[in-house]
Amino acid sequence: MNVKLEPLLMHVEKPGRYLGGEVNAVRKNWAENPVHVALAFPDVYEVGMSHFGLHILYAILNGRPGMLAERFYAPWPDMEGRLRSAGLPLTSLESSRPLSEFDLVGFSLQYELSFTNVLAMLNLSGIPLRAASRREDDPLVIAGGPCSFQPAPMAPFCDAFVIGEGEEVVLEIAGVIGEGKRKGWRREERLERLSDLAGVYVPSIHRGHEKISKRIVANLDEWPLPTSPVIPLIRTIHDRMVLEIARGCTRGCRFCQAGMVWRPVRERRPGDLVHAADAMLACTGHNELSLLSLSSGDYSLIEPLMECLMSRYQAKRVAMSLPSLRPETLTKRLIEEIRRVRKTSFTLAPEAGTQRLRNVINKGNTEADLLATTSRVFDAGWKAVKLYFMIGLPSETEGDIEGIANLAHRVLEEGRYRGQVTVNLSTFVPKPHTPFQWQRQMSPEETLEKQIFIRKLLRHRQISVKWHDGRMSLLEGLLSRGDESVADLIERAFLAGCRFDGWSDRMRFDHWQQAMEACGMDRQAILEKKAPNTSLPWERIDTGVRSDYLIREAQRAEGGLVTEDCRAGLCSDCGVCDGQGIRIRTVDDPQAEGIKALNISLLTALQEDPEPKPAPLRHEDRGRRILMTYAKTGLARFLSHLETATALIRAFSMAGPPLEFSQGFHPLPRIAFPFATPVGLESLGEYAGILLASPAVLQQNVVERINSRLPEGLNVLHLEEIPAGASSLSQAIRTFDYEILWDEPPDDSEIARLFERISDFFQASSHTVNREREGRTIQKDIRPYVLSLELDRAKAKILLKAGIAPDGTVRPMEVLTSILGIDPVRALSMRVRKVATHMQLIS
């Protein structure tokens, strides 16, 4: 980490976002790998680390000699402000190098409301916002991801765009960069060479009517999954392993951009998936595996795959989740497999409240499908179901809106009122490259009116309603449907302070409104209904789906006609498949004789866990506990107690003996951390109690193996068995020794003042401090807990008595601020170290 960044960390929320040093992070030699790629995600760390595509590109680039890739995420506004005040640039998590020093900056544009963050990251790094203003030594800025299928609004800020899937083209781009460095190409020549690559759009060069066709990986099996992903330091949005089982969708939902642009369906071989899951589990320690696909229930062998994975990992308490489930694909067998370890949440998306409107959008399932599925879910013991609906869909009537409420009530009734139903409402945005791309988008005022109407219809204590801010949907529509003039709006909003516009508590719509007025933007012209022959800003991008297919589907929508999934029926002639390499690839391909039976046979053979299951606990071994002593130093001191505990549990799961788990629907490993170490505090002696699942003997190198799976600064020092019948750790811990290093040596007058305050404290019978807990202020007398307090010009030494939860003992910051009278801001800059924890286990 950049040493200049370290003093800022105690002043920002979640400092773990900026530390780096994660397990499985790749640190390659800068000089030995001359092609330097920055993978930039324009959202906060915990969102970016949940994005699977970033892990793919990171593994591909770092797996090639001569190339390196490092990660950048958008700093939260508190950190951005600190960086600007200190005059510090945005730096990578791997080597702490500034973004401006890389050859190539690749932004992943996953959603339109992250666009201002792109500008913030460039500006913070001293890189000119506009591509036309960049100098010879500035990095090339390239964007990819779903938003690149409509590049116009961000075109003035990007030197190039990758259209489509990146596995192949990212290496071709890196190759051009490397060749250009060797041959001394100027910036313009590098861009010209990039423009020759299939699937790369360079706005400064492609000025005519050239069509840019998307890149597509014809066979996913040729590109193995990243099996050693970086393990986040903090809890992420999707805190689990991700196993991409398939890509693409042919259901043909007419509102769904992803279903159109990522065609055709390509499934991964089930045997490869199981072996990839083995590798991921071994090097991450996660306890949940998510099977990723646009419609995971559509994977041809989903039931035998789930049965294989659950049988293989049930003993390890690894849970399975299936995101993006369609109601009709959630079978009783799948439900039973999912519940074998832990009940992960169920989210289903009917999208519309009536069958008429579901036909219009070509959703392809029925009310009966949804009711049967939710009934099975409630019967299996789940207590909550989430239902996703859209409002503002083409041809929507008041009856369709009422249908949302009716369907929610029917679901609750079908479950015999045994659980909670959450209705989530999103606003329809007519996205590019879909059959609905010519449709009108309703205004925020109309959106709010419909949201309130639905809420009035759903006044039931077992039904909750959540919705997206209609103003955010308005911005999404403007940024996804506008031309290059929208770049002026984005830049003005950025300059006005807009950041993290996709976060409801951060979005400043007033600034966006002012920016619209300053630009003279006619938002109605962008969002109104358009004729099919209207020229659209994204027409130069060829997704493979022909325009005549989109028009035909739009016409069928007007008649309420359903188009069959071409996997199960006739080809819909969308234009994507070329009859050769690019085609639907499934693992039960009827054209490949015997392949389905072969894959099922393989999955059956793989059901057995490759590691022997622990023997059942004998009665005399039950309750056997291990005492773990660990240290938290260096940058690891900025991890919270929960983050520290999670890292230790994962490392122990990967490298230690099997853990005992709690019972119930959400089993957890039996590890007890008696005291929480505050953020920013170093410790040379922390303890945790661990209950093992078997009487296995601790191997000699187990500590070394565990430490190899821990982030920098976190280390297990010792493992030993706790005697049977010994007291709990919280009762056994007696005192703590602390050292506090001054930020600046105190002079004579300050030393005298500090000694006077210490004397007053020990002469007093009590000393009360105020603490905030659960939204209220409580008072605690800390006088009995401070046993000694000594200081000199180098440091202060404190001996504190342990206390009982929830109020616990004295906090070192309370010693500094309340007893010694040091300013709280200054106190945060001081290095606090727990030198020792004194404990006495009593049998």
What do these coordinates show?
The chain is of the alpha/beta class and 843 residues long. It folds into 5 domains: 6-213, 3-Layer(aba) Sandwich (Rossmann fold), CATH 3.40.50; 240-342 and 547-609, 2-Layer Sandwich (Transcription Regulator spoIIAA); 345-468, Transcription Regulator spoIIAA (2-Layer Sandwich); 614-722, Pseudouridine synthase I, catalytic domain, N-terminal subdomain (Alpha-Beta Plaits, 2-Layer Sandwich); 726-843, Alpha-Beta Plaits (2-Layer Sandwich), CATH 3.30.70. The chain has 26 helices and 27 strands. The strands form 7 sheets. Strands 18, 19, 20, 21, 22, 25, 26 and 27 form an 8-stranded mixed β-sheet that branches. A 6-stranded mixed β-sheet has the order 2-1-3-4-5-6. A 4-stranded parallel β-sheet has the order 13-14-15-16. Strand 11 (288-292), helix 9 and strand 12 (319-321) form a beta-alpha-beta unit. Helix 2 (52-62) crosses helix 5 (167-183), helix 8 crosses helix 21 and helix 14 packs across helix 15 (470-481). It is globular.
Overall geometry comes to: globular
Helix content: 25-40%
Distance between the termini: 45 Å
Number of helices: 26
- CATH class call of the largest domain: Alpha Beta
Judged by helices, strands and strand pairing, the structural class is alpha/beta
CATH topology of the largest domain: Rossmann fold
List how many beta strands DSSP finds.
Answer: 27
CATH architectural label of the largest domain? 3-Layer(aba) Sandwich
Radius of gyration: 29 Å
DSSP strand content: 15-25%
Mean pLDDT: 92
How is the biggest beta sheet arranged? 8 strands, mixed
The total tally of domains equals 5
* Poorly predicted sequence stretches spanning 5 or more consecutive residues: none
